[in-house]
Amino acid sequence: MSALIRRMQFIGISATLLGFALASFTTAGCGRRTGTEEHAEEPAHEESGQGGPNHDEHEDGSAAVELTPAAIQNAGIQVGVVGPAVIRLGVDSPGEVHLSAERVLEVRPRFAGVVRESRKHVGDVVQEGEVVAVVQSNESLSDYDITASMSGTVIARRVVSGQAVDHESVLLTVADLSTVWVEFAIYAQYAGKIRSGMSAAVTVQNRPDLRASAIVRYVGPLLEQDTRVSSGRLELNNSRREWQPGMFVTVRVVLETARVPVAVPDEAVIRMADGPAAFRAEGHRFELQSVRIGRSDGLMTEIVEGLASGDSVAVTGAFVLKSELGKGEVEHEH
C-alpha cells in the first residue's frame, strides 16, 4: 500500500511539472511572431503617382506641386510672364455716386392752371422736345403742352391729373443717367496734393469687379470747419447704367507713377508663414518661390527679389496651389 501511494504521488508531481512546461512553452510562443506573421501585419504602402497632384521637395527645401492639364484648367490656373510694369501709387478715399447736377431737369409749367394730363411715369425715357404733360391755363382756359428740353429718364413725378399748379410747381424731374458724378472725401493731410486733372480709379465697395478710370474734375477749395475734410469730384461714363446713384465707392487718386523692372499681378503673390511667395511655373509643375516685394497699387506688385523678368508664374489660382501644397505637407507628416 505504501508503495502504491508513493507511485501515485510521483505521477501527480510529474503531471504538475508537465503542466508548467506546457504553460511556459505557450507563453513563449505568444511572445514572438513568425516571419510570415510579421510580414502580414505590416501596413501596405500606397503607390505614389496614382491620381491627384504630386508633391515633392528638393534638397534645397523648395516645395512644388504637379498637376495634370485637366486639373490646371478646372482650377482656373493661368500662367503669365514676369516683366516690367507701371505702378500707380495713390491714396484711397470713400465716395458716393450722385446724379450729375448739370444733367438734371425739373419740368415746370409756364402758366398757372390745372394738370389735364401727365403722360410720363417714374422710369420712363423722355426724348428732348417730347410732350410730357398737358395743362389748362387759368387765364385762357385753353390747354397747352409741356415739353422736355432734355432727353433722359424720369426719376420723380410730383403731380397727378386734376392737380392745380403754378409756374413754381415741379411736374417731373428728368435726369440724363448716361453720365454720373462721384463725390469723394479729401482729408487734411492730402489737401494740396490732390488736384484737378489727376488720374483716379473707382471701385464699388461691395462689387470689386465693377471699376472705372476717371479724371479728377473738381477739388473743393476749403476744408469743412467741423470735419476738416474737403471734397473732390469725378465724372463717369454710365452708358451701360452700371453706376447707380447712391452706390458707395472707393476712389484711388494716383499721386505718383513708377515704372518697375519686375512685377506680377497682385493675385500671383500669396502669404506663407515665412513671408510672401509666388509659384514659378515649369510646364505642369509649380514650384513655390519666396519673394521680396516692393511697391503695390492694388493691381500690380513690384518684385524686388526672388523672380526675374521672363520667369513664368501662376498669375491666377495661386491659392489653389497653396491649398494643394498644404495637403501634401499633411500627407507627408502622416
Any idea of the CATH topology of the largest domain? conserved putative lor/sdh protein from methanococcus maripaludis s2 fold
- Run of helices and strands: HHEEHEEEEEEEEEEEEEEEEEEEEEH
Cα distance spanning the termini: 74 Å
Tell how many strands the DSSP assignment holds.
23
How large is the radius of gyration? 41 Å
Largest sheet features = 6 strands, antiparallel, barrel
- The portion of residues assigned to helices is 10-25%
Molecular shape: elongated
Task: Provide keyphrases for this structure.
Elongation Factor Tu (Ef-tu), domain 3; 3 domains; six-stranded antiparallel barrel; disordered N terminus; alpha+beta; OB fold (Dihydrolipoamide Acetyltransferase, E2P); 4 helices; conserved putative lor/sdh protein from methanococcus maripaludis s2 fold; 23 strands; 334 residues; five-stranded antiparallel beta sheet
Give an overview of the whole structure.
The protein is of the alpha+beta class. The chain folds into three domains: 54-85 and 260-333, Beta Barrel (conserved putative lor/sdh protein from methanococcus maripaludis s2 fold); 90-100 and 178-258, Elongation Factor Tu (Ef-tu), domain 3 (Beta Barrel), CATH 2.40.30.170; 104-175, RNA polymerase II/Efflux pump adaptor protein, barrel-sandwich hybrid domain (OB fold (Dihydrolipoamide Acetyltransferase, E2P), Beta Barrel). It contains four helices and 23 strands. A hairpin with a 2-residue loop joins strand 14 and strand 15. It starts with a helix and ends with a helix.
